[in-house]
Each structure stands twice: as structure tokens, then as C-alpha cells.
Write a structure and sequence with these properties.
about 1050 residues, alpha/beta, four-stranded parallel β-sheet, 38 helices, about 15% strand, binds zinc ion
Length: about 1050
């Protein structure tokens, strides 16, 4: 071994599989590896190409030297075995099995102890590359989504490292917010909870978050993710919080922060405002919906259009939230819709009992003596007739625009309210086409209310109970008794047509799983309207992958309302505002914000709770401290993480704004991508990222969402370490998990399950076998053995051309972040192409060509190039495998200035070898033909084998005839190739090949197995097989007439004689 460093010692000391191998005799090792290798490669090819005729025969062909060694090992006499020591079988300390449970942690320790990531990143002198980590929430264990995300990032970072970039990757965690606060609360008993102060709660929450960060970090490290783990960013760090306050302050000074009363999603169960991202819409929610009527008081003076129907005329509305009626301020219509005045003809009693729906109930209004007039959308008349079980006679039609400024009596307090023009949200899909408008309880209503200056009434408190403002309903729960009371009250006043259950999507608090309400409260807002145009322009400047992501974020940003950034919670960064005790006027200016920022940067945000007003106020306000109170709101956690560009990119050494890349799940279009964009555009005028990659969700193998109840959860830890039942859930290791990540098209949702993992594990094993073959056959390799390109046999030049093309394609796929293409290229090239052809043919010259012969050295030249390139191009995806190979490299690899690359990431991405790529097109085409011809020859050999003419392919002589003179000439040329490695019989792994100029003479007719084959779909080739001429060479198993003609070595062919004649046949033979 060339490398006498600590890691070499480590691999010998602790990798048990290596020890076992190295303690055996060399002969024993050779035998083992030869057997294992041959069986591995047979399996590899057959598995991937099951329909190929090659599979069935592969066991019996081309194993000359390998079979010889195998037979000898079994004690079968094969001559006297005196040449077996002249066979160069592969040798390597690189394990056949990954043994990932032991080996991966060893490799990670090796990287850690040698600070490989840091050193490589520092030594690289190319461009800097900054992938800014989106902070996962510091709550609970990691799931597959985390694994997909962090491994994708790591693949990108490691690729950039190999590209000589200065990579600085700071991992982050989102630490504040309700979920952690709730977890802490749930862990406390009633007594402790009562005595809980904000500071005690915050201390417990911080402790919980930090413990989770530690646990998650350990898991991320086990995935093989490289990051500056010693210096992560946590949103609870004082310097982070200070930077966030700074962003908030900047937005205040630019006029983008305001306090307003506005309906927000409010969770009575958590007593807080919620962001969109904190809502979920479970199936099966049923509301009590109500058709109600509001009596028209007067029509606009000039009009008189509907006067004839007064005073019996009412507006019919429909609502799923009857409890919002006390807050009603208007009824909205769509100006473009046609509305009808209908006469509701008396209720038919005989159909009353036939109504099967027991939950449906009719109001008193239809049971009265007189038939009333209602205004409803014309299109909805038939629907409503059926629903209400009543005849609706159309008396007159008008447009919605005609109804503007009609007045009706508020159904509860009797006050006069207007009919207003709403927007396109008013349709005839459901309801009556007229919308009960309560600006304090709905987003559309709020906007319509602003237009008409309607009062924003919201008589509901934090717990979801009516306030005194709601009069007789005061104290009732709006989602319970309150709702029912409103309905009863309206019914008594003859305002209800019908009540029925209504199933629809309704927002629930994602944490308490309880319904939310829309409620106007005093909140702090970021005015997205104020910088929406800049945000849209910024989106345009970013490279979005996949490109459809741009549409998603554009749509969400262009249509979103102002951002409510205040939360009524304790575990967060305070909104640094004071209120005047009497006037409630907020105090928020540059001086106050700066002062608080400097306090928080030193003491952390706890200071807001434990410091006095005098201390928190800047000097000029200190003597007025008694006039003020502290605000109690904290910031939305999306504001926390959305400030990370300021807290991290702008504040840390070696980072810069904007980042090159953000990589997160597609849900972050409305989460982190957006909150980061908004804070950055508002204060800096541009996006915090130049590029954004989004990935889908991880689903089970049937495409279903993973859930504990379905029992289909795939846990990344189980993939790596194995489950309780190792038969069902073996420990695959991090690299198999990473290989899966590379294999999926992450731009959509991705699937994983036991079957997929088994496939990944197979692929990994085969790739490991390929690398082991390369390592094993380079055991005596040194760079100075390299054969100059011009002198290489054509087969080798062609192999280098293929290698270089593959490396080029792989690089393009990394650059475009299409890792699944790399997976496909590697699978095809390293596993199928190489083992099927080049390695297969190479074994002869590697094993029996003579240790330092030209033919073996030229092959090793090609193998060394393959080993170095393959190990580097797979390293970003399979770092442990690549490092394991590197630590077992049988030769030194210098990176210039006589520096040795001790670790694979110290080597650079393989340099493009333009010379290799210049292999002429004509030759490329010819080699393609040869490869196809080889496949056809194998079919012919197989039928000869089935007919028991031959056993091993080396027992055959192949005849070819082509009527294409040009092709025939080239093939003949190949038969007589000056370079042994290029000759056709070596390529076919037969003992002889002859090109026939005609099929007419007798000799051709006597060839036992023959037939016409097509290559490339057009060239007809006649192929014949007979037994090979001459006698079998004892050493290489090729047949040759020359065997027996060398007196000192009567059992050898000419090739073997030349190899052996040059070296003494030692007394070794006597040893065995
Ligand atoms: Zn031979």
C-alpha cells in the first residue's frame, strides 16, 4: 500500500472483512476473488439483459485462466498446474461487500478527523458556491422528505467541490413557533402549567429545540451530508434574532409594516392567528348552512324598479357560517348576473313528510300565510325550488348592478344596511347569488368592505366566543351554541328559509386539528401590495428548476394578500413595539428598533420578557416609561426563517448575498421561498437567491402519502441501519439511500418502498463489483507504466473514447441537476457495457498476457483511467463507496505540486481529455458494428454449444462472410491485426476467426453450425462455427496448432510461450 497514513491503519484495524482476506494465503485470496468475480459478472450481465442469448452461455465462456485457477483450487488436476503462478489474478483489499454499518461510519470518522470538507473547500481556488440551507423545523425525527432534501443538497455541494469551487454550506434550523411551544405545554402537568411564566416556557422550548437540533444533526451526518456542522445557524441564536429585528426595522422604515384590523385565520383552540401554511383542510367537515332572508326597507329614490313588491320583498342569502350574521354589514351581488324577483308559493304540506333528509329543516317564513317575494339569482331558481320544496314564480328580472344601494334591515339589530357590488367571487355555483357580507369575518368581504367603507365588525373574542358587542349572544361559542342561537333567533323573526348540513372544505388548525374561524383582530402586517411589483420582477431574475416553479411562485405572489406577521404566542422573536398605555398608539421608530436590536444581539430575545420598560426603551424615552406598555406579539416563524438571508448570508464570513441556490420541497413556494423573497425584496430590492430548485414529496411505492395509520412509512434510519427484522429490512447503508435519491426525477413526487430499495441495493452491489474488478487488476499498477495514447490498441482507444463521452455526459447532467440521468448513464456504462464487453475481453490479457507485457499494460492504462474517472464522477452521489475505493487505491494519485490526493474529494473532477474524444467517427461506427457482430457470434456459439460441438467459447473457431467487400476487408484486417488485443478472436473470446471470401467452396459447406445474421438491421453476415484447430494451451486454454511445438514448454501456445520464456519457471511448482 502506498498510503501510510492514519486512515490506512484504520481500514486495516477495523474492517473485519479485510482482515479475514488478508490473513489468508495469497493463493487462497486469488482463488476466492477469482470465483467471486466471475460469478458476479455473470450475474450482472444476465440480470440486466435477461433476454440476451449471451446470458445462458456466459458461464461457460471466456473463463480460461479463471477456470484454471478455480479448478486447481478445487483440487481438480489440470495438467500439473505448473503455470498457475504465472497467471495475474486480481488482488485487492477492497471488500466485496459494502459492510456499510461498519464501514460508512469509519469513513465519516476519517473525513471528520481529517476535516476533509473544510480543507478541500479552503484549498479550492475556483468560484465560490453558496447553497443556502432552508432550516428544517427543530421538532421530531427526520423523515424521507428530509433525507431527499439534504442528500440532494449534498450531491450538489460535493459536485461543486470536485469542480474546484469554494463551497461554504451552513446548515440551519428553525427553532421558534407554536409546535414546539405546544410540545412543551403538553409535557407539563396542570400544576406546572399554571405556574408557567413566559420565561420558563421559553427556556423549556429552547432546551427542546436545541436537543432536537442535536439529534437531527446526527442523522444528517449519518446520511453522509457535509456541512459546517460546528457552526450551524439557529433562528434562536441572539445574532440571528438581531438580524431579524433589523429586517423588520428596515421594512418599518420603508413603510411596509402597518397595524390593522383585519380578518385573519384565527384558531380558537390555540388562541392565535394562523398563517395559510398552518392550516389544513380535512375531508368530511360539515357546516350548518342556512338560507336566510333580509327584508328590503327601501329602494334608491330615482329607481322605483321593484317598488311594486314592497314591503314583502327580501334578499335571500346563503351562508355556511350563521354565527357571522351579527357582524353582517352588507349584501353583495355580482353586477353582471341576472337576478329574479320570485314569489314563493305556499309550502305543500303533503310533500313535507316525504323529505327523507332529517337534518334538513325548513324555517318559519315558508310556513306563513302570505307568500313572500325573494330576490335570488335567476339561474338558481330551479335549484332553489327543488331545495326549498316550493314553487318560485319569477315576477321580474334585473341585473345585479341595478340592485346597488338598495337598503335592507339588519336581521338582528334592525339597522339599515346596503346592497353592494362584490367581485367575481359571487357565482351561481351554490347559494342564492347574493352574498352575506361581514368584513370582519372574511377575506373577500373585507376587500368589498374597504371599497364601500363598511364597518369591520367582529364581535368574537380570542376563545371564539361572542363579545358583548354581539348583544344577546354574548358569551356563546360561535362554533357551538352561538351558531345555533343565531339560527333560532333568525327563525323566530321569520328570516330562515331552510337550514341544512353542508359538507365542504373548511380550514382547520393543523396542530390542534380543530376548526378555525375568520376574525378581525389588531395585527401587524407586511404590506405586500407595497412591493408586489418589485417581487414579481425579482422572481423573473431567478433561475427556477423545474421551470414550471416560476409560474407557481408568480401566481402565489401576485394573488397573495398582505402578510400578517404577528402571532399571539410566547416562543418567538418579539415584535419590538411599545404601545401608549392610554391611546394604544404604537411606538416604533428607528431609535427604538435599534436599541432593542442591540439588546437582543447581546442577550437574546428573552430580554424582551425579563428587562424592564426603562431598559428596553432608548434613552430619550426612558423618563416616559410609565406611559408605555410592551407589545406581547411575536413574529410569524416564516418571518424568522424568511430573514435567514440577512442573518446568515450577509453576516457570516465566506458567504455573500444573494445565494447561488436554494433547494427545498415544492410546498416552500408559499413558505420559505416566498417569505425569503418578500423580506429580501422589501429591504434589498431583489431576491435572496439566483437559483431555486424545488423537489416533490416522497410517497410510498403505490404513490400514497406515508402515514403511521397506513403503516407505509419508510424511515431513512431504517434504510441505513436496518429494521428489527433484518431479513425484511436489511441495513442498506447511506449510499444506497443516496443512490435512490439520485435515481428519482425529483421535480415531481417520488416513490420509495422495499422493492425499489432492493433494486438500488443490487445496482450498488454491481457498481461495487465493477470498481473491485478495476482495483483488483491494477494491484501492480504505477503511473509510469502508462502506455502513450498513440501506441494503444484500437480497442483501448475506443474504450477511452467511450469513457470520455460518458464523463462529459455525466458532467452535463450534474450541471443541469438531472441526477437521474447520471444514474442511468452509470448503470448502462459501468455495469452493462464494461462488464459485458471490455472487462470480459480484457481478462485474457490481464490474467495471462504477462505481468509487464505491453498488452496487459495497455489494458491497465485504460482500466486506471476508468477507475479514476468513475470513482470521481460517482463520488457526489456515493461518497462512502468512492472514498472506500480511494482508500484502497493500489497506486498514488498526485494532484500537482507532488501533493497526493489522500481523499477522493482532494482529487478534482476528471479533466476533459480532448485527445480521447477525437477518436474518428468512422472508427466509432466500425466498433459499433463489431460489437453487434459480437452479439451475433455469441448466438452462433450458443447454438454450437447446445449441439454439444463445443463447451467453452475458446473451443471454437468462427468463420465470417460478408458480401459487403468493404466490411469484409476491414474484418480480415482485424483478423490479422498486428496488435494481439485488437484481433478478432480475442474480441470474440474464441481461439480462431477466419473471414471467408466465398461460401461456394466445399470447406464452407462442411462447417457444422452456420447461418445468416443481421447486424445494424441491414448488414447480412454469415457466421459459422466449428471446433477450434490445434490443442488446448494449458495456461490460457486457447486452442492453437502451435501447442506442442515448443520443446521446453510442450503444453503452451505461442503467446504463452513468449510470456513464459522470458521468465524463469521457478521451483514454485514444487510448492503446491
Ligand atoms: Zn496460451
Amino acid at each position: 500500500m502506498a498510503m501510510q497514513t492514519s486512515h490506512t491503519v484504520l481500514s486495516l484495524r477495523s474492517c473485519s472483512s479485510f482482515r479475514k482476506t488478508s490473513s489468508l494465503s495469497i493463493i487462497d485470496f486469488q482463488r476466492r476473488s477469482a470465483i467471486e468475480l466471475s460469478s458476479l459478472f455473470d450475474f450482472t450481465y444476465c440480470h440486466i439483459n435477461p433476454r440476451s442469448a449471451f446470458c445462458t452461455q456466459s458461464k461457460r465462456r471466456s473463463r480460461g485462466p479463471v477456470m484454471a485457477a478455480k479448478k486447481e483450487a478445487k483440487g481438480t488436476k489440470q495438467g500439473d498446474g505448473k503455470y498457475k503462478h504465472t497467471v495475474d489474478l486480481p488482488k485487492t483489499t477492497f471488500g466485496m461487500r459494502a459492510n456499510s454499518a461498519v464501514r460508512e461510519p469509519e469513513i465519516q470518522k476519517l473525513w471528520d478527523e481529517n476535516q476533509v470538507f473544510k480543507k478541500v473547500a479552503e484549498r479550492n481556488n475556483g468560484a465560490s458556491f453558496i447553497l443556502h440551507d432552508g432550516p428544517p423545523y427543530a421538532n421530531g425525527d427526520l423523515h424521507m422528505g428530509h433525507a431527499l432534501n439534504k442528500i440532494l443538497k449534498d450531491i450538489i455541494n460535493r459536485y461543486k467541490l470536485l469542480q474546484n469551487c469554494k463551497v461554504n454550506y451552513i446548515p440551519g434550523w428553525d427553532c421558534h413557533g407554536l409546535p414546539i411551544e405546544l410540545k412543551v405545554l403538553q409535557s407539563l402537568d396542570q400544576e406546572t402549567r399554571k405556574e408557567l411564566t413566559p420565561l420558563k416556557l421559553r427556556a423549556k422550548a429552547a432546551k427542546f429545540a436545541k436537543a432536537t437540533v442535536k439529534a437531527q444533526m446526527a442523522s444528517f451526518k449519518r446520511f453522509g451530508v457535509w456541512a459546517d456542522w460546528d457552526n450551524p445557524y439557529l433562528t434562536l441564536d441572539p445574532e440571528y434574532e438581531a438580524a431579524q429585528i433589523e429586517v423588520f426595522g428596515q421594512m418599518v422604515f420603508k413603510g411596509f409594516i402597518y397595524r390593522g384590523r383585519k380578518p385573519v385565520h384565527w384558531s380558537p383552540s390555540s388562541r392565535t392567528a394562523l398563517a395559510e401554511a398552518e392550516l389544513e383542510y380535512p375531508e368530511g367537515h360539515v357546516s350548518k348552512s342556512m338560507y336566510a332572508i333580509f327584508k328590503i326597507l327601501q329602494t334608491p329614490t330615482k329607481d322605483g324598479l321593484l317598488d311594486e313588491f314592497l314591503p314583502k320583498l327580501s334578499l335571500a342569502i346563503w351562508t355556511t357560517t350563521p354565527w357571522t350574521i351579527p357582524a353582517n354589514a352588507a349584501v353583495a351581488v355580482n353586477p353582471k348576473l341576472q337576478y329574479a324577483v320570485v314569489e314563493a308559493l305556499p309550502f305543500s304540506p303533503d310533500t313535507d313528510s316525504s323529505l327523507g333528509d332529517k337534518d334538513k329543516r325548513f324555517g318559519n317564513v315558508l310556513k306563513g300565510q302570505e307568500s313572500p317575494f325573494f330576490i335570488v339569482a335567476l339561474d338558481l331558481v330551479p335549484t332553489l325550488e327543488a331545495k326549498w320544496n316550493v314553487k318560485l314564480a319569477v315576477k321580474k328580472t334585473v341585473f345585479g348592478s341595478d340592485l346597488e344601494n338598495y337598503r335592507y334591515a339588519h336581521p338582528i339589530n334592525g339597522q339599515e344596511c346596503p346592497v353592494v357590488i362584490g367581485g367575481d367571487y359571487i357565482t351561481t355555483e351554490s347559494g342564492t347569488g347574493l352574498v352575506h357580507t361581514a368584513p370582519g369575518h372574511g377575506q373577500d368581504d373585507y376587500i368589498t368592505g374597504l371599497k364601500y367603507g363598511l364597518p369591520i365588525v367582529s364581535p368574537v373574542d380570542d376563545e371564539g366566543k361572542f363579545t358583548e358587542e354581539a348583544g344577546i349572544f354574548s358569551g356563546l361559542d360561535v362554533l357551538g351554541d352561538g351558531n345555533a342561537s343565531v339560527i333560532d333567533h333568525l327563525d323566530e323573526r321569520l328570516s330562515i328559509v331552510m337550514v341544512e348540513p353542508y359538507k365542504h372544505k373548511y380550514p382547520y388548525d393543523w396542530r390542534t386539528k380543530k376548526p378555525t374561524i375568520f376574525r378581525a383582530t389588531a395585527q401587524w402586517f407586511a404590506s405586500v401590495e407595497g412591493f408586489r411589483e418589485s417581487a414579481m420582477n425579482a422572481i423573473n431574475q431567478v433561475t427556477w428548476t423545474p421551470s414550471q416553479a416560476e409560474n407557481r411562485i408568480s401566481t402565489m405572489t401576485s394573488s397573495r394578500s398582505d402578510w400578517c406577521i404577528s402571532r399571539q404566542r410566547t416562543w418567538g422573536v418579539p415584535i419590538p413595539v411599545f404601545y401608549h398605555a392610554d391611546t394604544k398608539e404604537p411606538l416604533l421608530n428607528e431609535e427604538t428598533v435599534d436599541h432593542i436590536k442591540s439588546i437582543i444581539s447581546q442577550k437574546g430575545s428573552d430580554a424582551w420578557w425579563y428587562m424592564s420598560l426603562e431598559e428596553l426603551l432608548p434613552e430619550s424615552y426612558r423618563d416616559k416609561a410609565s406611559d408605555y406598555v410592551k407589545g406581547t406579539d411575536t413574529m410569524d416563524v416564516w418571518f424568522d426563517s424568511g430573514s435567514s438571508w440577512a442573518a446568515v448570508l450577509e453576516n457570516r464570513n465566506g458567504l455573500s448575498f444573494p445565494a447561488d441556490l436554494y433547494v427545498e420541497g415544492s410546498d416552500q413556494h408559499r413558505g420559505w421561498f416566498q417569505s425569503s423573497l418578500l423580506t429580501s425584496v422589501a429591504t434589498k430590492g431583489k431576491a435572496p437567491y439566483s437559483g431555486v430548485i424545488t423537489h416533490g414529496f416522497v410517497l410510498d411505492d403505490k404513490g400514497l402519502k406515508m402515514s403511521k395509520s397506513l403503516g407505509n412509512v419508510v424511515d431513512p434510519r431504517t434504510i441505513i441501519e436496518g429494521g428489527k427484522n433484518q431479513g425484511e429490512a436489511p441495513s442498506y447503508g447511506a449510499d444506497v439511500l443516496r443512490l435512490w435519491v439520485s435515481s428519482v426525477d425529483y421535480t415531481g413526487d417520488v416513490l420509495i418502498g422495499p422493492q425499489v430499495l432492493r433494486q438500488m441495493s443490487d445496482m450498488y452491489r454491481k457498481l461495487r463489483g465493477t470498481l473491485r474488478f478495476l482495483l483488483g487488476n491494477l494491484h501492480d499498477w504505477k503511473a509510469e507504466n502508462t502506455i502513450a495514447y498513440d501506441e494503444l490498441p484500437e480497442i483501448d482507444q475506443h474504450a477511452l473514447f467511450q469513457l470520455e463521452s460518458v464523463v462529459k455526459n455525466i458532467k452535463e447532467s450534474y450541471e443541469s441537476y438531472q441526477f437521474f440521468k447520471i444514474f442511468q448513464i452509470i448503470q448502462r456504462f459501468a455495469i452493462v457495457d464494461l462488464s459485458n464487453f471490455y472487462f470480459d475481453v480484457a481478462k485474457d490479457r490481464l490474467y495471462v498476457g504477462g505481468a509487464s507485457s505491453f498488452t496487459r499494460r495497455s489494458c491497465q492504462t485504460v482500466l486506471a483511467a476508468h477507475l479514476l474517472s468513475i470513482v470521481k464522477v460517482i463520488a457526489p452521489i456515493l461518497p462512502h463507496l468512492a472514498e472506500d475505493v480511494w482508500q484502497n487505491l493500489p497506486f498514488e494519485y498526485n494532484i500537482g505540486n507532488a501533493d497526493m490526493a489522500k481523499f477522493v474529494f482532494e482529487s478534482k473532477w476528471p479533466e476533459v481529455n480532448k485527445r480521447w474524444l477525437t477518436f474518428p467517427q468512422e472508427e466509432i461506427d466500425f466498433w459499433e458494428k463489431i460489437l453487434e457482430l459480437r452479439t451475433e457470434v455469441n448466438k452462433a456459439l450458443e447454438s454450437a454449444r447446445t449441439g454439444k460441438l463445443i463447451g467453452s467459447s475458446l473451443e471454437a473457431k468462427v468463420y465470417l462472410h460478408s458480401s459487403d467487400d468493404n466490411l469484409a476487408a476491414r474484418l480480415r484486417n482485424k483478423c490479422e491485426a498486428k496488435v494481439d488485443a485488437d484481433s478478432l478472436h480475442r474480441i470474440f473470446i474464441t481461439s480462431q476467426v477466419k473471414i471467408l471470401s466465398t461460401l461456394d467452396d466445399l470447406s464452407a459447406k462442411n462447417i457444422p453450425y452456420s447461418g445468416e445474421y443481421l447486424i445494424q438491421g441491414e448488414n447480412k453476415i454469415w457466421i459459422g462455427v466449428s471446433r477450434a484447430e490445434g490443442t488446448k494451451c494449458e495456461r490460457c486454454w486457447n486452442f492453437s496448432p502451435q501447442v506442442g511445438s515448443f520443446i521446453d514448454h510442450p503444453t503452451l501456445c505461442k503467446r504463452c510461450y513468449d510470456v513464459i520464456a522470458g521468465q524463469p519457471v521457478p521451483a514454485l511448482a514444487a510448492v503446491s
